[in-house]
Specification:
It is a single chain. This protein has six helices and five strands; from the N terminus they run H-E-H-H-E-E-H-E-E-H-H. By secondary structure, it is α+β, with helices and mostly antiparallel strands. It has one domain (about 5-140). Strands 1-3-2 form a three-stranded antiparallel beta sheet. Helix 1 packs across helix 3.
């Protein structure tokens, strides 16, 4: 799977985990074309997976956050209005945009932009026209947290 196919995968599913296992599809498994045991870094396609995952994460139509089980989650732009409409059902940290970068020392460093600061113009207005329960359903009932549930990280 190349970067364009991976973007199409995220668009189709709307919400996917980057590499963890959970209630939604996992992008690294789709890229590899098979379930991955252990870390994807050790997979024979590890370098390819890294390149594709980075390309998808950098796309302006992809939100990288911790929405599902506090794991790195990718949300396609088509669901951002629903996410904004249902925001009160999630701990605030789960909706922050996460940007992962490599430091000069070679470590991964995360910076976060809180919700709704990362939302483009117009999305909040569109969200106001949506019913919060319908918005939750659009996100996918298999992983949606209970209203008021707090993040493990908080």
């Amino acid at each position: 799977m190349n970067a364009q196919e991976a973007l199409a995968f995220v668009q189709k599913h709307g919400v996917v985990l980057a590499s963890a296992r959970g209630a939604v599809p996992t992008l690294t498994h789709a890229i590899a074309g098979e379930p991955i045991r252990g870390s994807w870094w050790g997979h024979p396609q590890g370098k390819h997976i890294f390149a594709v995952l980075n390309a998808v994460s950098a796309d302006p139509d992809i939100l990288v956050c911790r929405l599902v089980d506090d794991k790195i989650t990718l949300v396609h732009r088509r669901l951002w209005p629903a996410l904004a409409a249902a925001a009160s059902a999630f701990a605030p940290g789960r909706l922050a945009r996460v940007k992962q970068e490599h430091s000069a020392r070679g470590h991964h460093e995360n910076s976060e932009t809180p919700f709704p600061d990362w939302l483009p113009a117009g999305v909040l207005e569109e969200a106001h026209s949506l019913d919060p329960q319908a918005a939750l359903a659009a996100l996918g009932p298999t992983f949606v947290t209970n209203p008021g549930q707090r993040s493990v990280r908080e």
